[in-house]
Amino acid sequence: MENNKKKNGIGKVLGKVFFYPLQDKRLAVLMVLVYLALILPIIYVGKWNAPQLDDFGYSVKTHAAWQNTHNIFAVLKAAVAQAQDSYQTWQGTFSSIFLMALSPHIFNYRGYKLIPAIIIAGMTLACFMLARVFLKYCLHKKNLEWISLGAIASILTIEKIYTIPSGLTWYNAAVHYMFMHSVMILLLCCIVRLVQVKILWKKIVYLILSVIFAVGTGGTNYATSVMGILLVAATCGILFLYEKKRAWIGLIPFVVTLICFLLNITAPGNSIRADNYVGWGKPALQSILLSFGSAASYSVKWMDVFTALVLLMLIPVFWHIFGNDRDGSDFRFPLPGLVLLYSFCILASGFTSSWYSLGHAGLSRLLNVVRMSYQLLLIINEGYFIGWLRRMLGEKCKKGFTLRLSGFLILVVLMWGTVHFHHNPLGTFTTFSAYYYIRVPQAAWYYNEYMERREILETSAGQEVILVPYQNKPWLFFIEDITEDPDDWRNSGVSRYYSLSSVRLMTEEELERTE
Q1: How many helices (H) and strands (E) does the chain have?
Q2: CB under 8 Å, gap of 24 or more: what pairs does 244-252 form?
Q3: Number of neighbours of residue 245 by Cβ within 10 angstroms
Q4: Is-contact 330 199, C-beta < 8 A?
């Protein structure tokens, strides 16, 4: 009898734990812990990250300014000068180029280790702010579901980056695409708060922030700029419907975005760069049509098992959020089909500039931001549809259902299974890729080679330098090396950065003689 009572007691305890409801604070804490556990390995491997390619060429002026003055204002002035120079001679993305010139390694080579942390911080802030503004300030949800939603969105966008090196570790590409895309999302959040807040000093702060983010959005890569304009236009339109006269102030950052985008696309340098791609692009109308085809094909391609499991996890979360009417929210979630259609148009716009200029859907670094948009639009549309469904059903589904610990653990196991049994998890899942290079010493060997190379370069000002090619090229960090041609643009950037007469790699014959 006593043994049976003990077994029944243990069974009840396990049952309570296994079916423990996860909502509000409990789910928020759990999802933040999961998020931190996943990003820490990614930040850790940043210690083996090293600058390359455009990281040197765009930082020549700022590096020289810091070395000569150690004055941050002189560095910022040099960054502006770099943006102006590139605007006239290469491309009009002035806000991105300003940040490209401020790579952390110009101050200290160790600063480049921070790149994954910086990009992840931008993406995370964008996801959390989007969730906070949407749930707390637009739908007036008073609990902490926005934290859970922000953590889940951050996990999905970070884990399923299209190409990790150009998205997280190579500063030049990561800041131009992923970071500036995060800036665009923050712009949307600031416009909503700019219209909503009534306290003067808060309105001034949001106005300043929204104008800064508008300059960033209008002056960056075309995919982010075009998607940003469409999203800002939709945001302002919705604000006019619900906030009436107060929404006029939201037009200020919208106009700033448009002006900066016009400055971006009319830069003299664009025509110079376009000369390198004559005959590559498609006509404007054809590019638009092809963009819709790309949006459809990539939507299918990117809907993998991991993404589907994340969306499955969100069903009870959204069901609970939008079934809770005690906060007094009366939003009816109208026209979910129209929201889905506009979302598809926004996604398609991300491909248009590449089809028009290059004749294909996009380079991997551009597809990084398009995929991030796809993931966030999926979550937004799922939440919107569930909200609409709950309002339509009304009293018929008053109780609903809640995500429980058992369901959460099952989904986590299934997600782990998608990683473990994937035919190529390296490069497909960011945390797995980071963990792989923690276990395998190739990244550490690569960084040691970089340190040896850096010492030669820093002590050879004014000289002709010949370097041994990298022997270790870890996929997560290595993009491309300089060449055997000292006049190559890759070599020129390194040469100017370190004030060398020239720099090149050893030829195969020279390498054989040294062995």
Answers
A1: 24, 2
A2: 246/195, 246/196, 247/195, 249/194, 249/195, 249/203, 249/207, 250/191, 250/192, 250/194, 250/195, 252/207, 252/210, 252/211
A3: 7
A4: no
Task: For residues 113 and 44, give the distance between their C-alpha atoms in angstroms, rounded to a whole number.
Answer: 9
pLDDT tier at 407, thresholds 50, 70, 90: low
The C-alpha angle with vertex 460 and arms to 90 and 49, in degrees rounded to 5, equals 60
- Listed by start position, the domains of the chain span 25-49+113-435, 462-515
Residue 390 pLDDT grade (very low, low, confident, very high; cuts 50, 70, 90)? confident
**In the structure encoding, which two tokens stand for residue 456, read together?**
């030669």
Nearest in space to 37 (alpha carbons), one of 443, 432, 436, 308: 432
d(C-alpha 138, C-alpha 376), whole Å: 17
Confidence of residue 473 (pLDDT cuts 50, 70, 90): very high
Calculate ∠ Cα 365-166-302, nearest 5°: 55
The stretch 439-465 carries a mean pLDDT of 93
Q: What is the pLDDT of residues 59-95, one digit of tens each?
A: 999 999 999 999 999 999 999 999 999 999 989 999 9
What pLDDT, on a 0 to 100 scale, did the predictor assign at position 329? 63
Q: Tokens at residue 45, please?
A: 């491997």
- A 10 A CB-CB count for 404 gives 16
Look at residue 265 and tell me whether its pLDDT is greater than 90. Answer: yes
C-alpha distances in Å from residue 433, one per residue of 13, 203, 301, 430, 438: 38, 43, 21, 5, 9
The average pLDDT across 2-15 equals 50
* CA 347 centroid distance within chain: 15
Largest Cα separation within the chain, whole Å, is 90
Q: Quote the crossing angle between the two packed helices 115-132 and 364-393, to the nearest 10°.
A: 20
DSSP per-residue string spanning 339-401: HHHHHHHHHHHHHHHHHHHHSSS--HHHHHHHHHHHHHHHHHHHHHHHHHHHHHHGGGGSS--
Eight-class DSSP state of 219:
T
Strands 502-505 and 464-467: parallel
Q: Is the pLDDT of residue 273 over 70?
A: yes
Burial class of residue 488 in the structure, from the number of CB atoms within 10 Å of its CB (0-12 exposed, 13-18 middle, 19+ buried) = middle
Quick one: which of 183, 184, 202 has its CA closest to 193? 202
CA distance 315 to 311: 7
Phi, psi of 404 (to 5 degrees): -110, 165
Mean pLDDT for the chain? 87
> Which of 144-158, 212-226, 239-253, 322-336 shows the lowest mean pLDDT across its residues?
322-336
User: For the chain, what's the residue count?
Assistant: 515
Cα–Cα distance for residue pair 96/170, rounded to 1 Å = 14
Which residue's entry shows tokens 């469409």?
Answer: 230
